[in-house]
Specification:
The chain is built from 17 helices and 16 strands. An eight-stranded mixed sheet has the order 3-2-1-4-5-6-7-8. It has an eight-stranded mixed sheet with strand order 11-10-9-12-13-14-15-16, with helices on both faces. With about 500 residues, it is of the alpha/beta class. The radius of gyration is 23 Å and the shape is globular. It starts with 5 loop residues before the first helix and ends in a 6-residue tail after the last helix. The protein binds zinc ion. Zinc ion binds near residues 322, 323, 326, 478 and 479. Zinc ion binds near residues 325 and 326.
């Protein structure tokens, strides 16, 4: 059976599938059995299979796990704890073959080689036997994306191309074995992961597997909601209402993972403001920029948004490279939240009222619902469940969540609101794996000379170049143009440019 959080998956799918139709999406899911097969399970193969099951069990109602013996039983148990309503069957038409597993009629082959992810349709791909989880994690996400395209884009014929090799170390696709680097023994200093949401889960999935010593503080104020399970890879069905940071750090790891339930500002007030590394796995531009404004020595920022997912590993603050603030400067094209909500609800003429309701969190009254109903041409009945609730609830659940407007229309609307974007599990998990890798890479190579930005659109096969340098704009509008910020950074860590 479909998981309890199906509605959330439908919202996510509506944002990536053109001409989305909820009934067709449901039928497609119910008709599909996705297979996962493996024979010899190496250490990296084990990581790949683990991530693959964590992704597939949250979306597809039927899986065929064709892995013999104890590894197979463990994967089946994992799948059932994620979705107890999941049906496990013996065979599938279509699926992911890990290493030397049994092929399906339509196979996506996945393998890994240390930092490198291997995915293709040509034939079996090997899995390495190292403790490096990054190639494996990325391969699982890319294979998950390939299966999603095969299931939901029936007209899409996957271009027949050579097997993909993607290096998580360089964040580029390669044509042969790529550069390699041994994992460090320990982190250069303590790190802070801000956000234990979907991207944070992807990062921690990898970081809790690396045999690297050190300490990572995980900061998030929230508890897990049912709708989060659609894409939080470390969550299981029984985790509803768990404190997000406790859930994210519960598995013992070589890295000491320290939960902090609270906002970043409170964490910094309690534990100090000088941090060698900060990883941002946040939803809103405002939170990202305020994290940058706390001036960590090095910062990496990951995101999912309509069109792509990505991670930026930033150079020293105030140097030539873009800071996090540079990437979120309003260009006039981005609307304020109150404008966005008022327009989405069809009541731009009531902007002031919307603004007040957003700020105060006061209950929405019937006259406003009547105005919305009239504007969107729907009966008042569909809006009445939101009487007495907040306008944010009305916008998020009613409009972005599909309760008021049909999902096909919602996709368009939510695309404008990046902060309301609902990604698919493999998108968030891949952004998280890349974010975790950025921390280890920075430990090995030091802070990059210039900010490096990696962008991937998993609705298409990977292009030839996914990573680009990004310079600061230096047009006087960013916090990194501000002398006081620059001086505060230099006072904390020494002259800017000294890593
Ligand atoms: Zn800047």
């Amino acid at each position: 059976m479909l998981a309890d959080w199906f509605a959330r998956s439908a919202v996510a799918a509506a944002q990536v599938l053109e001409g989305f139709d909820e009934d067709r999406f449901r039928t497609h899911l119910e008709d599909t059995v996705v297979g996962i097969s493996a024979a010899t399970v190496t250490q990296e193969g084990d990581a790949l299979l683990d991530m693959l099951v964590r992704l597939a069990a949250r979306l597809y109602p039927r899986l065929a796990i064709v892995v013999r013996g104890e590894p197979g039983e463990q994967l089946a148990d994992l799948a059932r704890t994620i979705n107890p309503q999941l049906e496990l069957t013996d065979s599938a038409e279509l699926g992911v073959v890990v290493g030397d597993g049994e092929p399906f009629a339509k196979s996506t082959f996945a393998g890994c080689d240390g930092w490198d992810a291997l995915v293709g349709t040509g034939g079996p791909l090997p899995t390495g036997d190292s403790a490096n989880p990054f190639g494996a994690g990325a391969a699982a996400c890319l294979a998950g994306a390939a299966v999603f395209r095969r299931v939901f884009l029936p007209d899409w014929s996957e271009p027949h191309e050579d097997d993909l090799r993607f290096s998580v170390l360089t964040s580029e696709r390669l044509h042969a074995s790529g550069p390699t680097a041994a994992l460090p023994e320990k982190l250069a200093g303590e790190a802070v992961l801000v956000g234990a949401g979907a991207i944070g889960h992807g990062a921690l999935w990898a970081l809790r597997r690396v045999p690297v010593a050190g300490r990572v503080h995980v900061v998030d104020p929230e508890r897990l909601e049912l709708s989060n399970m659609q894409r939080y890879v470390l969550s299981e069905r029984a985790d509803e209402d768990a404190v997000k940071v406790e859930l994210a750090t519960r598995t013992p790891a070589r890295l000491a993972l320290e939960p902090y339930q609270g906002e970043l500002a409170a964490f910094l007030a309690a534990h100090g403001y000088a941090w060698p590394s900060m990883l941002l796995a946040l939803d809103s531009a405002r939170d990202r920029v305020s994290a940058q404004a706390s001036l960590p020595q090095w910062v990496a920022n990951a995101w999912t948004q309509p069109g792509d997912l990505g991670v930026a590993s930033h150079s020293c603050f105030g140097g030539d490279g873009a800071c996090v603030g540079c990437m979120y400067l309003p260009d006039g094209a981005v609307k304020n939240e109150d404008q966005l909500v008022a327009e989405a609800l069809g009541i731009p003429h009531l902007l002031m009222q919307v603004r007040v309701l957003l700020y105060t969190g006061r209950a929405v009254e019937r006259d406003l619902l009547q105005a919305v109903a009239q504007a969107i041409g729907r009966p008042l009945d569909v809006l009445l469940p939101f009487e007495g609730r907040t306008i944010r609830d009305l916008y998020v659940e009613g409009f972005c969540g599909g309760q008021v407007l049909p999902l096909g229309e919602v996709g368009k609307l939510a695309t404008e609101a990046q902060d309301m974007h609902v990604p698919l599990a493999h998108q968030s998990a891949l952004a998280g794996v890349l974010l975790g890798a950025a921390l280890i890479r920075c430990t090995i190579e030091g802070v990059p000379e210039i900010t490096q930005v990696t962008r991937i659109d998993v609705m298409r096969p990977l292009g030839p170049h996914v990573t680009q340098p990004l310079r600061a704009r230096r047009d006087g509008r960013c916090i990194c143009d501000d002398h006081d910020f620059y001086a505060a950074y230099a006072a904390k860590y020494g002259r800017v440019g000294d890593a």
